[in-house]
Amino acid sequence: MTRPISLSFICAVLALALSTTSPMRCMAEDEKASFLPTWKLLNPQEKQQFMAGYLYGWRDAAKVTDIAISYIKENPQKAVEGLESVRALYDVSRFNSSAIAHEVDTFFQDSDNHDASLTAAISFAKARLR
What we know:
By secondary structure, this protein is mainly α.
């Protein structure tokens, strides 16, 4: 069963921060870099919106982890293969926040999508940008 997986606003911000160099090196550098300069640029409403996106990301990560746990329990011999597939869902190295936001706007312009979740909107955006 395929479930739509979304990336939160924080993932879009992190994708923008990634360069074309080694992803592992960039991730290590991001973990050491202070977030305070960025945080100070945000007004209270933007901070709240940022945190809402971050929390959506954590909720989606928990759902994906549950799917991975279930898959590995049912297919222990394919654990690595399954985790690599899950990891591919989170590969945002070629996306940026501007492009994702544009595609989410496009998605919500369709009246059929007015009641859709953020997960569906982000999945749509990723698919269009691939």
